[in-house]
Write a structure and sequence with these properties.
Distance between the termini: 44 Å
Oligomer: single chain
Number of helices: 3
Structural class: mainly alpha
Shape: elongated
Order of helices and strands: HEHEH
Number of domains: 1
Length: 87
Amino acid sequence: MRKSLEIDAELGGRLESLRQQTVEMLRRAENLKGLHVVFLADGAKWIWDRFAEIAPQNSTFILDFYHACERVSMLCKQLYGEQTPKH
């Protein structure tokens, strides 16, 4: 049986509070063998840098769907131009 912990938060200027919550939950979860931590966020570099500071070594980082689509759209615009059928 897989055990999971979930922290769902909107930053809204409370990044340090979220960081402290996450660190505390990870500390409490240390005794769960094989715990795999997944971080889901937008593509802001500063958010990923903060996650990397506290993430266990085997963590997974996932770009949220909205921002992933936004990046794919930007790539398509660069590859095919904005007004092409492929875009």
